[in-house]
Design brief:
The chain is of the alpha+beta class. The chain has 18 helices and eleven strands.
Length: about 450
């Protein structure tokens, strides 16, 4: 009672560590930032290029993560953008804008490397690969007269996201290349790495064991949901980088590859790749657990209808499993509906906040191991802290009511009798949120 009256629960929650999770989304800007895009367009149309750049880079800047550095004096200026393991550095004057990023060092010329880059150049729209002595880089440039906000955004996004993706792949594939210009990434504590590695192993082992206990043909759909939910959970909660992230994307790609193979075959291949991941050493995994700053999302925004459709389809698919005594499979299917969206789309921050809270409820032991103080659900006793859950939901809504004034999460519809019913009612509320923004 005293906790409820004096808000001690909220105070304890605030003492928890503030750790980043999941993929970066740039679909999270407050109203003031969105207005800066309009400012940039208006200044550019009027020929006020310096003011247009001021507004544009202010629009890009995410003050929470300090991802953009920008300065201007008169007609000239410079900027830096952080994207994962890479930094884009640029400058402009009264005539043109130039931006580049270092991918790797190539001490000796390599024909296979140059062939790969030549092939990849054909798929680039705004940028190109280049070689500056022994420095392998990507570049984007534009005359000032054509450097409008839209072209700048798409050009710098292609430069940033392609470079962050390709640097790891190129160094991995070619011994002639050496990593370069990645000293800015933040090393995380070994204690946090240990927690992430241990739960990575735990979740893979549990999922593979659960899948092995089911008939591979009869339960092919349920097994697919479980495997994909696992991949999305690792992506969000473990937040891998580099090679580990690339491997996860490949495993997910097995299922969605357009071929004539049956789900049972795809499930088998995904499980085999997960076993390979399971067998990687602690030291190997540790090197891909670090923190980075991002400016651009690697996925695109979608309408709320796409999110709602994913949630609805998953919740319909879980009914048979719920009603026939497979609650764990049912929960994994429910999780898939919203986790797929978090993985595949650049979500509004408020949806990510709700998803993160959903994961806190469902994976309390993981968050506890990371140092989070509040436990919203105890699986051993099937008990929810309903007051704290309702309070957290209200706080999320209050935080975003300026941007989404019509959003109304109807907490009275939540069920607290078991985890499956809670998850289903929680995600259903996300499905029906009114996300018309101001």
């Amino acid at each position: 009672m005293l906790d409820k009256l004096f808000g001690w629960n909220r105070k304890k929650t605030e003492q928890s560590p503030q750790l980043p999770f999941g993929r970066y989304s740039d679909n999270n800007k407050p109203v003031a930032k969105v207005n800066r895009w309009t400012d940039a367009e208006n200044h550019f149309k009027a020929g006020r290029y310096g003011l247009a750049f001021d507004a544009f880079f202010d629009y890009l800047a995410d003050d929470r993560v300090q991802n953009v550095r920008y300065e201007r004096q008169g007609d000239a200026g410079s900027f830096s953008l952080y994207q994962g393991s890479k930094i884009v550095r640029g400058r402009f004057d009264q005539d043109q804008l130039l931006a580049e990023v270092t991918l790797a060092r190539m001490p000796q010329a390599s024909v296979p490397v140059m062939r790969r880059l030549l092939e990849m150049n054909f798929s680039l729209r705004y940028t190109r690969f280049a070689l500056d002595e022994d420095r392998l880089c990507m570049r984007f440039d534009s005359t000032l007269a054509s450097a409008g906000p839209s072209k700048l955004y798409h050009g710098l996004k292609e430069l940033s996201t392609k470079a962050d993706k390709q640097d790891d792949l190129l160094v991995q594939d070619f011994a002639a290349l050496q990593s370069s210009d990645s000293d800015h990434v933040q090393i995380i504590a070994d204690t946090e790495k240990a927690v992430k590695y241990d739960f990575l192993q735990k979740w893979i082992a549990e999922t593979l064991e659960q899948a092995a206990s089911l008939d591979a043909d009869k339960f092919a759909g349920g097994i697919s949901y479980m495997l994909l939910s696992l991949i999305y959970r690792i992506d969000y909660l473990i937040t891998p980088e580099g090679n580990l992230l690339n491997e996860l994307e490949k495993i997910a790609g097995i299922y969605f590859r357009k071929d004539d193979r049956q789900p049972t075959e795809k499930n088998r291949d995904m499980q085999e790749e997960l076993r390979k991941l399971q067998n990687r050493s602690r030291e190997d995994i540790y090197q891909y657990l670090f923190r980075s700053r991002y400016t651009f999302s690697i996925v695109a925004p979608q309408t709320h209808k796409a999110i709602a459709d994913s949630i609805h389809a998953a919740n319909q698919s879980m009914i048979w499993y719920r009603d026939n005594g497979y609650p764990h499979v049912a929960s994994q299917i429910i999780e898939y509906g919203i986790a797929y969206c978090q993985y595949s789309y650049s979500l509004p921050r408020v949806i990510t906040d709700f998803f993160h809270f959903y994961m806190e409820i469902n994976y309390a032991p993981y968050f506890s191991a990371l140092g989070y103080k509040k436990q919203y659900y105890d699986a051993a006793t099937n008990r929810f802290d309903s007051d704290a859950i309702l309070d957290r939901i209200r706080n999320i809504q209050e935080q975003w009511k300026e941007k989404f004034p019509l959003m109304d999460f109807k907490t009275q519809n939540l069920r607290f009798d078991n985890l499956v019913n809670f998850n289903q009612t929680f995600t259903t509320e996300l499905e029906f949120l009114n996300m018309e923004n101001k």
